[in-house]
């Protein structure tokens, strides 16, 4: 696996050590590992930018951080201590500011190649068995119900709408099932399609059990 400067890893591990929303260090490590895999297909990508963005992509997430300004200052200092150039830091900042699903609800941001790789990796970790676990984990973190048949999934959302509490099962329709078509790289698209198929089977089974559709 490509190395990320230890000063960046240490900063992120300290910041996210107590996360209980599914955006913890384990999530970040998986995203970095997925980036490492995807990078093998794109030797022209700047690995330092990609891996640094992967490790820090959730550090300034406004749903996780109450006061962003001091954390941003610490992060910029950490980038400099890691030996990243001003151009690399600017590229990383552009990626982390624009890769999230909610950031692209109003308009679609065209990311650099490095940003596309990080975005794909982050979205892949929202899919499959781990994606199911993370969805319910975050739902419990926010106090969202698992499912409410009387609340239909939203078809259009602003960022403010997206931040509103919604049943976890609705999140599959509002975001997760859409991610396959939003992947940037064909390698990620293939993985996403496989994971989404698994999730669709899960949701179908979940609803069947909820409504007692099985024959006894």
Automatic annotation (TrEMBL):
Stated name of the protein: HD/PDEase domain-containing protein
Record-linked InterPro entries: HD/PDEase_dom
CDD domains per record: HDc
The HD/PDEase domain, residue ranges: 20-136
